[in-house]
Amino acid sequence: MTGIAPRLEQLRARIRECEGRHGRPPGSVRLLPVSKGQKPARIAEARRLGITGFGESYLREALDKMNRAPDCQWHFIGPLQSNKTRGIAENFHWVQSVARSKVARRLNDQRPADLPPLNVCVQVNLSGEESKSGVALADAEMLCREVNRLPRLRLRGLMTIPARVAEENAQRLAFRKLAAEFQRLRRMIPEIDTLSMGMSHDFEAAIAEGATMIRLGTALFGARKG
Ligand SMILES: *Cc1c(COP(=O)(O)O)cnc(C)c1O
After folding, report:
1. Above 80 in pLDDT, residue 191?
2. H helix intervals, 71-114
3. Residue 23 domain-assigned?
4. What is the rounded distance in angstroms from the CA atom of residue 42 to the CA atom of residue 48?
């Protein structure tokens, strides 16, 4: 398998080009490499290229990788079970998949006092698909307000994984809904700064609609194992 350096360079060029095409300031979109299902050697390679933050979906898998790269920033982006919150609160810098107030309270209570507050995005389920986690768009504000009141959490914004569609206009329609809600919330909670949307197959549509963070796995690292 070839190294990730050429893919990283190509992706950065596509992001820059896309920012320009849609009137976004250069550098306004952050690429979060998603390393779930990838071998630690891939992470080491990414770190040699200057990458310092990674997204992971499974606690156990992530802990092993964190031990090898303790100076990196780790984002938990997977489904959150109540019995996993302690390990997440103790080890991650961000959690992008908060969708229930009970989980938010547990993360708050379990965040160690000697660490800075845990950065949180509320995950929104735009499509109403049962298989996808996230709060309904109509409930996002209430959960955001609740997270914002918890002292050991720092609300950063919204995250979504929309239904997979191929057509760019359909992708943009879903992202536009979340972007509108993000702008509305930001008028009430000006500290929020993160609109995390867009994956390998739809990140250009997400950038067009205002994403500030795109989460790329396969486009950067290649196919995942398992
Ligand atoms: C796996 C995953 C990604 C990356 O998906 P790719 O299609 O490989 O880019 C992004 N976000 C979340 C929440 C994921 O679970």
Report:
1. yes
2. 85-91, 101-110
3. no
4. 10
Say whether pLDDT at 226 is over 70. Answer: no
Beta-sheet pairing, 194-196 with 153-160: parallel
Q: What is the pTM of this model?
A: 0.97
Whether the per-residue pLDDT at 1 is higher than 70: the answer is no
The per-residue pLDDT for range 99-121, each reduced to its tens digit, is: 999 999 999 999 999 999 999 99
Question: What is the domain count for the chain?
Answer: 1
Residue 147 has pLDDT above 90, yes or no: yes
Q: Could you tell me the CATH number of the domain that includes residue 147?
A: 3.20.20.10
36 CA distance to ligand 1 centroid (A)? 8
Ligand 1 neighbourhood includes 34 CB (under 6 angstroms): yes
Closest residue by CA, ligand 1 atom 8: 217
Q: How many angstroms separate the alpha carbon of residue 15 from the centre of ligand 1?
A: 17
Is residue 141 one of the residues assigned to a domain? Answer: yes
Structural domain of residue 43, as residue ranges? 5-13+30-221
CA of 34 to the centre of ligand 1 (A): 6
Question: Do 99 and 122 meet the contact criterion of CB atoms below 8 Å apart?
Answer: yes
- 186 found inside a domain: yes
Report, as an integer, the average pLDDT of 8-36.
98
Q: How far is CA 96 from the centre of its chain?
A: 5
Residue 131 near residue 95 (C-beta atoms within 8 A): no
CA of 114 to the centre of ligand 1 (A): 30
* Ligand 1 atom index nearest CA of 161: 13
Ligand 1 atom 12 nearest Cα = 77
